[in-house]
């Protein structure tokens, strides 16, 4: 029996929703890919679950860190063509896989009605433990549960329909970042300057890096080589999950 070839991601979609735990998560892992999507005419929305108030490397008062990081993420999003940035306001570093979190992500899915959702992998990446922040894995799992079955099931969280008029919506693709089983690479060489501009917007997080561009470039170059791209190219990688 001959197996069919692996299903490929859609070449173009109208709307994408990126659901990440912290401000800057999308920019380190995916901003080049996002820049390519927006340049091609795709509408991209960010849903950031926390304000990142437990981050930073200086003595900024904790009550100021959350608002600072919201502003930084909004500025970073603009660098890659994203103007719709939503924050859920959950506590940084203390995320748990709750029904409330699933409902709140389902709400945004039904509001945005994306054909594609990007989020973090719920799997621990044993070869690169830094990719597996507990908040990242929690958001990845909560988002996958929101994609299936919650957002597409009209009887899940019925208050979303009854009280808010948000009808069920089926997401066709989920792209998981920082996945140990990545199977799709996006060449971001031609838009990498936009990714760096986005990253540099996160002053509270990256100002201590002496060579941020060099570090991130080396990382993307290794990804490109791993996926067989030509020498000198830069890439971001994802595990693409088809849900239909």
From TrEMBL:
The keyword NAD does not apply. Keywords: Zinc. The keyword Zinc applies. SUPFAM superfamilies: LmbE-like. Gene3D superfamilies: LmbE-like. InterPro entries: GlcNAc_PI_deacetylase-related, LmbE-like_dom_sf. It comes from the Bacteria. Transmembrane segments: none annotated. Coiled coil: none annotated. This is PIG-L family deacetylase. It comes from Blastococcus jejuensis. The lineage of its organism: Bacteria, Bacillati, Actinomycetota, Actinomycetes, Geodermatophilales.
């Amino acid at each position: 029996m001959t197996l069919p070839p692996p299903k490929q991601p859609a070449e173009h979609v109208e709307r994408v929703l990126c659901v990440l735990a912290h401000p800057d998560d999308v920019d380190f892992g995916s901003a080049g890919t996002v820049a390519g999507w927006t340049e091609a005419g795709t509408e991209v929305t960010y849903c950031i679950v926390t304000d990142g108030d437990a981050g930073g490397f200086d003595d900024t008062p904790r009550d100021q860190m959350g608002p600072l990081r919201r502003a930084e993420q909004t500025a970073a999003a603009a660098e890659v063509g994203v103007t719709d940035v939503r924050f859920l306001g959950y506590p940084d570093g203390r995320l748990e896989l709750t029904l409330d979190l699933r409902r709140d992500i389902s709400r945004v899915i039904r509001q945005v009605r994306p054909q594609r959702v990007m989020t973090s992998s719920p799997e621990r990446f044993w070869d690169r433990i830094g990719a597996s922040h507990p908040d990242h894995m929690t958001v990845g799992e909560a988002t996958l549960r929101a994609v299936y079955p919650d957002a597409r099931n009209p009887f899940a969280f019925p208050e979303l329909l009854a009280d808010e008029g948000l009808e069920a919506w089926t997401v066709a693709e989920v792209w998981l970042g920082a996945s140990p089983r990545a199977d799709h690479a996006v060449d971001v060489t031609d838009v990498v300057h936009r990714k760096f501009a986005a990253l540099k917007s996160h002053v509270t997080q990256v100002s201590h890096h002496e060579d941020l561009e060099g570090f991130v470039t080396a990382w993307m170059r290794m990804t490109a080589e791993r996926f067989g791209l030509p020498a000198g190219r830069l890439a971001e990688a994802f595990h693409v999950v088809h849900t239909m």
